[in-house]
Every structure is written in C-alpha cells, then in structure tokens.
Amino acid sequence: QQQQQQRGAPVLPLASCVLLLTGIARDVEEQCRKTAKALGASVVSSFKDTVTHVIAALDPQLRTESNTFKCMMAIVTGKWVVSVEWIEQCKLANCRVAEETYEMKGLVENDELDDGAKRSRLATPEERSTLLSPLTVAFVGQQDPSLEQIKQLVPRCGATLISEKDALVQIEDSKGMCDILCLVDEAEVEPQFVLTRLQPLMERNRVLDFYWLVDSVTAFRQLDTQSYVYDPYPADSTD
Predict the structure, then answer these.
(1) 23, 49, 96, 193: least surrounded by Cβ within 10 Å?
(2) Tell me, what's the pLDDT at 166?
(3) Regarding beta strands 80-83 and 63-64, do their DSSP bridges make them parallel or antiparallel, or are they unpaired?
(4) Among 90, 88, 84, CA closest to 103
(5) How many CA atoms lie within 13 A of 165 on its CB side?
C-alpha cells in the first residue's frame, strides 16, 4: 500500500484486508478469491493472527448451518465474520463497504447463540482472552484428527488445556469432586469406553459433550453446562 502511494498509483479499496474463506462452494470461492485480489486484498488458506476478515457461507439471514473452525478462531480473536455478499458489494461500490450489514448473526435454528461474532469484535482483548477462564479442560477419548484444531480454541479463550492422562491422574488423586471439564464427542463413544472410563469420571467430575465448547465460542459467552452434560445411557425410544 505504501509503495502504491509513493508511485502515485491508486490505493485499492481492500489493500489493508487479509481474507480467509470458509465453507463456501468451490465455484463461489474461486470467484471470491479473484474479486478479493482484484480489490487489493490478500487471501490466505489457514487462520493467522493477521487475518482481518473471515468470509463464510451465510444464508440471507446471515446464519450458518454449522460453525467452522475458521469462524470460531475469528470469533475468539475479534475478527470480522461476514457473508460472501460483502465482497460482492465492495466490488460494486469499488470501496470497502461497512461490514456490519453483512456480519454473521449466528447458527440456523439456534438463536440462543446469536451475535457472538459482534460481541467478540466489540470486546476488549482481555475479555476475549478470558472467555473461558479459569476453567481447566480435557478432551477424553477423542480420536478424530479434526478435533486437534478445536483444542486450539481452549488456550485462546483463557482456559487451561490438559491431556486426558493428566486429567485422569488429577481426578483419581482428588478427595472429592474435581473441577475439570471433560469433553466427549458422543458420536465416537463406544459402550466399553463408557463402562471402563467415563462412568468412574462422571461420579467425580463434569463430563460434557464437546459442543459445549463450540457453542460457547459461537455465542462468545460461557454457556450453562447443564444442557450439555453427557448422558451415556440416553432414554431408549422403546419400552
């Protein structure tokens, strides 16, 4: 941008923007990249602290079917999360249009999590870095490699992330209830794992579905854990 000014060249409207695209159909994504670059923006493929905007697949009500890791990283760091239409409007106006009109509202069919992106963007750095403070969190029984990304959210939000092994040691050594949030992916839990590992944990510790973390980040507030308590024996639909 400085070089453009020194040479007398016009400064492109999105020259100061670093964009990250997520959840967008391939053909739409390719067009977004071309448009963004033509307007002077940089486009990256993974989240970095230098990112200024995450461009997400949002419906006309500015909602998404499910949050992505890139969107959640944008929320916990106070970046803009906007729809593809923002890029299109910037092109039409040949300027950086106000983002508020295109900012992510929340999730489809869950308005209890609304406006997390806006709350985080307007929050102070200290408020963002202490979102989950002073919690201690462990992921128990997780094998899905994609959850390694989700784990990155924990220290970003001020909570302490410990290993499953360390969590089990602390729980076993505690004399009463141990205040560690053990997060479990219900889809991956095997019956034998419930009997041998989770059942003892649940007697002395809070075991939650890991979507408590996802939803707390999406809403940018610590959600009540009660509705996320993991139930290893959900009510059977048959008698």
Answers:
(1) 49
(2) 85
(3) unpaired
(4) 84
(5) 0
**205 Cβ contact list (under 8 Å, min separation 6):** 171, 177, 178, 179, 180, 182
Distance CA 194, CA 9 (A): 65
For 90-123, letters b (16+ CB in 10 Å) and e give bbeeeebbebeebbbbbbeeeeebbbbbbbbbee
Please state, in angstroms and rounded to a whole number, the distance separating the CA atoms of residues 62 and 14: 22
Q: Please, are residues 103 and 80 in contact by the beta-carbon 8 Å criterion?
A: yes
pLDDT digits (tens, 9 = 90+) for 132-183: 999 999 888 765 667 788 888 999 999 999 888 888 778 777 766 667 788 8
